[in-house]
Automatic annotation (TrEMBL):
Protein name: Probable nitronate monooxygenase
Pfam families, A to Z: NMO (PF03060)
Family indicated by similarity: Belongs to the nitronate monooxygenase family. NMO class I subfamily.
Cofactor(s) named in the record: FMN
A Gene Ontology BP annotation from the UniProt entry: response to toxic substance
Single GO molecular function: nitronate monooxygenase activity
Keywords: Detoxification, Flavoprotein, FMN, Monooxygenase, Nucleotide-binding, Oxidoreductase
Amino acid sequence: MWRETAFTRVTGARLPIVAAPMAGGPTTPGLVAAAGEAGAFGVLSGSYRTPDGFRAAIREVRRLTSAPFGVNLLLPEPYEVDPAAVEAALALLRPYADELGVELTAPERYGEDADALLDVALAERVPFFGFTFGVPSPAALAALRDAGTVTCGTATSVAEARALVDAGVDMVCVQGIEAGGHRGAFLGDPFRGAGLISLVPLVRDAVDVPVVAAGGIMDGRGVAAALALGADAAQLGTAFLLCPEAGTSAPYRTAVASAAETGTALTAAFSGRAARGIRNRMLDDLAGADLPPYPVMNDLTRPLRQAAAAAGRADFLSLWAGDGVPLARELPAAELVAALERETDLAVERFGCGRGHG
Ligand SMILES: Cc1cc2nc3c(=O)[nH]c(=O)nc-3n(C[C@H](O)[C@H](O)[C@H](O)COP(=O)(O)O)c2cc1C
């Protein structure tokens, strides 16, 4: 019974389980395809890719599978470049850069060409477009609607969910405070917010569109709980980080495999925007520092993060992960999705039996 929901009806996925978009490496076409083949709905992140790279990745997913899948972008937000703040941030980062033997300079331009990435999604006619950090422009939403694309926005509060639905977005991904990666918050303080167990029923009651629950879901117990709270699908990011198909770097994998549930924190240290990751030296050093906003800080730290990944140094990497991280399993994506399906059956049965068979 749990397998068919408003989400599966709209997307055509066999299961109401989403392999979350994870920009910056972890989400590969191979991961999206393997999750899709196993019945989950894989979402390919387009951000941090070039438009050509994004197009190639979409085509690679289609080469690998005929299962339905979606794409996702981090939406651009207005930001200011304050040269003094950039210099101050570079001064904070230089000791790390020296340690890694990498040169740090301010780039000429910040951020990415989100319009070009959106154009790729439209031209490739991907039927599902997810996004985070706000609401797309009315023109972008109209173009997506005309293309017959289902849209799904990220909300970390009831007000954000309402804003998305009022703008005409088709689905809401509710992200709890325990979620790994960037917080999608766009109204209010991104460092504050409710946990998923409070947020899903609140949003469920506030909006009349399919709701996807994200944050701390690691196994079938979590999937069943999200569905019981009123969600139409469960979205898992951290749970997929250790899959061999994921592009998670070696030092990142080691950190994920040994992290405790008390080991994550919200930080703006790596990107200038609130995100949850496993605590490391850079996260702790820069806690409370006055830093430039996203995407400025993100672009300033990129060479450092790339050098750290190449050198196997987890202390300067953004190790995005949610509070459920100790439950991450090193399994091929197909086996992970099969385990999630089995475990959800068991969890649903455990509750269903009591009532149904008295
Ligand atoms: C490494 C990583 C990268 C992420 N990148 C994105 C992204 O590009 N777009 C997005 O909408 N969400 C992104 N997220 C957030 C996920 O969509 C989702 O909200 C989160 O993974 C759920 O929490 P969990 O990690 O505890 O499962 C990312 C999460 C992680 C862990």
